[in-house]
Amino acid sequence: MEREHIIMAKQVALYVLLVSVAIAGITTAPPLTIVILVFFGFKIYELVYFRSAKFIAIKNRISAHIQDRNDLNDHIEELKSTHIGADMTRRGHSDYHDNSKWNFKRSGFKKITNAPNVYNCSRSVCDGSRRDPMKYVCKYFGFSADEPTLSKFENMLNNFTAVEDGKNSLTSEKNEILASISDDVPFLIKKFSKKLLAKKLGFKDVDLSDTYYPSFKFQYVSAGGNASTENTIVMDIPNLNAMVNYLNDRIKWKKSVAGQRALMTSALRKHILERDNYTCRQCGISTYAEPHLLLEVDHIIPVSKGGMTTEDNLQTLCWRCNRTKGAKLNV
Q: What's the chain's Rg over C-alpha atoms?
């Protein structure tokens, strides 16, 4: 055992001895007192360990891997910010009051909201949105069946699919890094200080929730305010695929374009990754060399510069190369 670890162990042992003496001197000490003494003893143990040369050496050894993972986390958060431009706030606002002399509770009125993603409607519209979600989202939230709208939803689908893959990569990479140092970290720290260990090592917090998916709500409240229904359509991966196909079926394509263009769906994305053998076309790294690598499907000529969603204009890039390319295009 290294000298630093021995010193730390002696310090902890001394404290435990002092605690034991204190408890022995108070034969009638209540259980709460014992718990408090043990708790503070462990906190001192944590403090000594995370300031030790041994821990600092471990942190320095894996710092490059943790920084790379944190950069991936930042990239994923950037992808989550993809939006489709729906904004119902331009409808304006008003201040409504019910001045009826009748003392009705009208509980349904409390549910009325004027958020950008909420459409207050009749019962028939609310029911219709349940039967044909994509049609009603387009009709009542102002999405036209044209190529620019389709491109926005395709881009969102591509980015959000990368986000979901990236979340898995982040989890796997963290577990792999922690496993690589497991033998060097004291059992008590691994058992009772997992979150603090990750924080001290430099891991950024990761949001693994799916709250970044946009949603559209159809909401009906009766005139009397005593009855209400609502239908929420979350634009997750399956619904984004459905929207892309819905828009494509309704766009009046020119024959020349329709013959060339492909749909950026999950199926096409998988096909491009398989075609490129899960290898980045720019730097050559693959999932064979880096199992948890996040790969993305990129337009060689960006759509914003006239590029089309065709197989020969799509390539596999690792997240690092794709992020670098995006940064250069934004300059």
A: 28
SS3 label, residue 188: helix
DSSP bridge partners of 314: 299
DSSP conformation class of 286? B
> What is the rounded distance in angstroms from the CA atom of residue 113 to the CA atom of residue 230?
12
Measured N-to-C along each axis, helices 147-180 and 53-80 cross at an angle, to the nearest 10 degrees, of 170
Q: Are 80 and 170 in contact (CB under 8 A)?
A: no
286: Cα separation from own chain's centroid: 23
**Separation of alpha carbons 67 and 81, rounded Å:** 22
Which tens digits make up the pLDDT trace of 283-294?
Answer: 999 999 999 999
Residue with tokens 């190369």: 321
Domain span at residue 185 reads 3-75+181-201
Same domain, 64 and 194: yes
The Cα–Cα gap between 323 and 331 comes to: 13
- Yes or no: say if 240 and 163 are a contact pair by the CB < 8 Å rule: no
CA–CA distance, 94 with 109 (Å, rounded to integer): 15
Structure tokens given for 47: 């403090």
Query: How far lies 260's CA from each of 122, 147, 254, 270, 281, in Å?
Result: 42, 14, 10, 19, 23
Note the pLDDT tens digit of each residue in 290-330.
Answer: 999 999 999 999 988 888 899 999 999 999 999 998 766 55
308 three-state secondary structure:
coil
- Does any domain span residue 26? yes
d(CA 237, CA 235): 7
Q: Is residue 196 part of a domain?
A: yes
Do 195 and 315 belong together in one domain? no
